[in-house]
Amino acid sequence: MTMRIGCVGCGNMGGAILAGLARNAEQNRDQADAYALCGYNRTASRMRPLEEAGVQVMPSPLAVAENADIIVLAVKPYQMQEVVKELRPALNKDKVLVSVAAGISLHNLAQWADAICPVVRCMPNTPALVGMGVFALCLEDPKLSHDCKQSLLQMFGKLGQCVELPEEKFTAFSALIGAGPAYVFAMMQGLVQSGVTLGFTHAQSRQMVTALFAGSARMAQEDASPLGQLRDNVCSPGGLTIAGVNVLDRAGLTGLLVDAVLAADARGAEMERKGG
Ligand SMILES: NC(=O)c1ccc[n+]([C@@H]2O[C@H](COP(=O)([O-])OP(=O)(O)OC[C@H]3O[C@@H](n4cnc5c(N)ncnc54)[C@H](OP(=O)(O)O)[C@@H]3O)[C@@H](O)[C@H]2O)c1
């Protein structure tokens, strides 16, 4: 059956979700679970590339809610309540609202929608912009049917990795995976800088370092050995790698990463208490 998916707020994240689904629908035209996609964005010009990709442009948030069964809300957190109010007349028990807004609780979403339809919280990370995101989905609303949960897992699974988490784990997810690209880019920056120090051009160094991360990530995905084992495999006795790794161990890189994630988690919990 065709799934009707709409998005209100088609900026970076909403646009990436619609574009990813449109790409997927184009690649799997023959499959039964095709998507009918629509969207609305305040600044109309942002809809142009999405329209070219097959997304139907709607004249208002209300029209999105009328024409979709799964309604993704991807406006900024402070705009969320107003947008839910706008589309409220088209909501009913057969629609589902999916918010990607950081720090907006299921409780608030349900309240703004007068508890008329199920609500879902979703937390993506920025690699979603290139079709390789990790999405946390909170499917705890008792109004959600089994079929609807499966449809949502399937839909977000097409955009990257999708994990189902209880809402109480959302801050931890944000601290580890939402913030994660910042930790990875910081490590990449250090390695690119060392490449330049050793005489490579910046462009060469960046190209090699990004390939290094992609290749290492693929190895960690495909080889179930403990990460310490994968690391030790690179360290020949008396060789150059162990000389470098000794410096990282002395500086406590692993402990630093743990501290960084715990600090982000503590800050996230504080923000969640204040409502974003
Ligand atoms: N970007 C990320 O990596 C990321 C990660 C996790 C969660 N999120 C969440 O995703 C949401 C969107 O973030 P973003 O980075 O994609 O921001 P963004 O690029 O600014 O996108 C928000 C879009 O919403 C549009 N908009 C504002 N009010 C609207 C309304 N009443 N009706 C329709 N469209 C409206 C804006 O239109 P204009 O073009 O007119 O400004 C803009 O295009 C946020 O809630 C954020 O917490 C983002």
Structure notes:
- Pathway: Amino-acid biosynthesis; L-proline biosynthesis; L-proline from L-glutamate 5-semialdehyde: step 1/1.
- The chain is α/β, with parallel strands linked by helices and 276 residues long.
- The protein folds into two domains: 3-171, NAD(P)-binding Rossmann-like Domain (Rossmann fold, 3-Layer(aba) Sandwich); 178-272, ProC C-terminal domain-like fold (Orthogonal Bundle), CATH 1.10.3730.
- It is 52% helix and 14% strand.
- The chain has helices spanning 12-27, 48-52, 61-67, 80-87, 106-112, 146-157, 170-178, 180-197, 202-222, 227-234, 240-251, 253-273; strands at 3-8, 35-40, 56-57, 70-73, 96-99, 119-123, 133-138, 160-164.
- Strands 3-2-1-4-5-6-7-8 form an eight-stranded mixed beta sheet, sandwiched between helices.
- α7 (170-178) packs across α12 (253-273).
- The longest helix has 21 residues, at 202-222.
- The chain starts with a strand and ends with a helix.
- Bound molecules: NADP nicotinamide-adenine-dinucleotide phosphate.
- NADP nicotinamide-adenine-dinucleotide phosphate binds at residues 8-14, 40-43, 46, 61, 74-77, 79, 83, 100-102, 123-124, 126, 178.
